[in-house]
Amino acid sequence: MEKLVFGYLALAILVSALLVVFSRNAVKAVLWSLVLFLHQAVLFLTLQAEFLAAIQIIVYAGAVLVLFLFVVYLINLREEITWPRFLSAYPLAFLAILFLLALSGAALSGFRPAPPKGILTAGALLAQGHTRILGEHLFREYVLAFEAAGVLLLVAVLGAVVLVRRIREEGR
């Protein structure tokens, strides 16, 4: 049953990713990416990574897609942009994809996973949970990087506010 669920999720993720790339309408592409993100969240749930599934839905399916929709509506695409000169490159691109898939298959044929090292073993994950271990690593070993990312995000938000304020003042 687990293989069947994984197969469905993998196929749905692959198909929705292809629909995002090949969709002619930008809004439909954003909606297909919503389908992609939701299936990824369910895949995280099947791996018992509830925290990652929640973050996937909150951050990507929530915030990032709303940002994408705002950008799509702000640039105001009225007609489809086509480049006919690239249409002749599809057979070459298809051959390149086949070559890369064959190369990936050859590279992964001898792959053996390494044994777990440190405290991140399967037993520890089941006993303590993903969220607890992630929090301990984040706030003990990577606290400087975590704080630096927070400061960078704060500076970006303040910069956006200053830019919007300048544009509004010049428009008056």
TrEMBL record:
<comment type="function">
    <text>NDH-1 shuttles electrons from NADH, via FMN and iron-sulfur (Fe-S) centers, to quinones in the respiratory chain. Couples the redox reaction to proton translocation (for every two electrons transferred, four hydrogen ions are translocated across the cytoplasmic membrane), and thus conserves the redox energy in a proton gradient.</text>
</comment>
<feature type="transmembrane region" description="Helical">
    <location>
        <begin position="142"/>
        <end position="164"/>
    </location>
</feature>
<keyword id="KW-1003">Cell membrane</keyword>
<dbReference type="Pfam" id="PF00499">
    <property type="entry name" value="Oxidored_q3"/>
</dbReference>
<comment type="similarity">
    <text>Belongs to the complex I subunit 6 family.</text>
</comment>
<keyword id="KW-0812">Transmembrane</keyword>
<feature type="transmembrane region" description="Helical">
    <location>
        <begin position="87"/>
        <end position="108"/>
    </location>
</feature>
<keyword id="KW-0520">NAD</keyword>
<dbReference type="GO" id="GO:0005886">
    <property type="term" value="C:plasma membrane"/>
</dbReference>
<dbReference type="GO" id="GO:0048038">
    <property type="term" value="F:quinone binding"/>
</dbReference>
<feature type="transmembrane region" description="Helical">
    <location>
        <begin position="6"/>
        <end position="22"/>
    </location>
</feature>
<dbReference type="InterPro" id="IPR001457">
    <property type="entry name" value="NADH_UbQ/plastoQ_OxRdtase_su6"/>
</dbReference>
<feature type="transmembrane region" description="Helical">
    <location>
        <begin position="29"/>
        <end position="47"/>
    </location>
</feature>
<protein>
    <recommendedName>
        <fullName>NADH-quinone oxidoreductase subunit J</fullName>
        <ecNumber>7.1.1.-</ecNumber>
    </recommendedName>
</protein>
<keyword id="KW-0472">Membrane</keyword>
<keyword id="KW-1133">Transmembrane helix</keyword>
<keyword id="KW-0874">Quinone</keyword>
<dbReference type="InterPro" id="IPR042106">
    <property type="entry name" value="Nuo/plastoQ_OxRdtase_6_NuoJ"/>
</dbReference>
<dbReference type="GO" id="GO:0008137">
    <property type="term" value="F:NADH dehydrogenase (ubiquinone) activity"/>
</dbReference>
<feature type="transmembrane region" description="Helical">
    <location>
        <begin position="53"/>
        <end position="75"/>
    </location>
</feature>
